[in-house]
Amino acid sequence: MIYSRLGHSGLIVSKLAFGAMTFGSGNFPTVYKVGRDEAQQLVDRALDAGVNFFDTADAYADGQSEEMLGRLLGARRKETIVATKAGNRMGPGVTQAGLSRKHLFDACEASLARLNTDYIDLYIVHKTDPFTPLEETLEALNDLVRSGKVRYIGYSNWPAWMAAQAVQLQRERGWAAFVNGQMYYSLIGRDLEHETIPFMEANGVGLTVWSPLAGGFLSGKYTRDNLSDPNNRLSGFDFLPHDKEWGFSALETVRDIAGRYGASPAQVSLAWLLAKPVVSSVLIGSSRLSQLDDNLAAAELKLDAEDLARLDALTRPAPLYPNWFAEATLDPIAAKALGR
Asked: What is the pLDDT of residues 200-209, one digit of tens each?
């Protein structure tokens, strides 16, 4: 296993993290489908491989994921870094969702109980909340850190402008600072590169990646013929928008590169992410040992500069305004003098 610091913090995390979203059962049977015995095998294999970073959320299978992960880590809890998330609806009451002080305090206490732990290593707000002032959310997170119930804080699925505003407020008021942004990023989902990644790099916020294989699409197991099979995950939980035909074309190049390394398409897709300096850790969620073993092997795969450049060019998103204007008007004399 390889390790890195989480953003500007001193927290050392495995570059591959284990995502426990599949643990439990519920209304998304193609996602929530791993029982206790299978989950124990997956957790044990991840620990044996050097994974020290485990991720879940209160909303996954209505809390079952947290409960199972807490039990399965057991005596090895102190060896691990546990991240969980809050913000999604957890009950019928109007206040049982969002990022208000009330809900964050209630959600944290409930997560601590389900995880059977005295503290949460990384507490992440799962989404934005347009109904709660940003200052209220940030002060509540700061108080959870000061109370000792939470060690570090992060956000997930926030736009760059909101994260930037939050970081500025945290600095001005001496509040606990975000060390992490957990965001969707994959070879065929690179929207982050427009604004979010430049913000993170400039502010020392570490990126942890969810759905690095685009919901399993980049594993290579899907074809144009089986994509609509009701038993596969994408047919029941096709949450990530992308042009499937374009994706299949990109996979042809991924498979070509994978063949030369004796690797799988999933390993190549994960290795491309692991080579990005801003990436602190990549979440791998598995429902089978064979799948987990394949993903874990990506930590040992080093793509050469030529293949990394080929993959970068393969799916690079077109620049948005004003980014393209800045690139088009870059002063060539100054750029040449500075080697850019």
From this structure: 999 999 999 9
Give, as one character, the DSSP assignment of residue 220.
T
The residues, any chain, with a CB within 8 Å of residue 84's CB and separated by 6 or more, are 55, 56, 57, 58, 66, 111, 115, 120, 122, 123, 124
Q: Which of 32, 60, 152, 184 is catalytic?
A: 60
Q: How far apart are the C-alpha atoms of 49 and 246, rounded to whole Å?
A: 34
Q: How many residues does the chain have?
A: 340
Q: Is 123 assigned a catalytic role?
A: no
3-state secondary structure of 112: helix
Predicted TM-score (pTM) of this structure: 0.91
Distance CA 279, CA 207 (A): 5
Q: CATH for 3-337, among 3.40.50.300, 3.10.620.30, 3.20.20.100, 3.10.180.10?
A: 3.20.20.100
Contact predicate 125/97, CB 8 Å: no
How confident is the prediction for the chain on average, in pLDDT?
Answer: 92
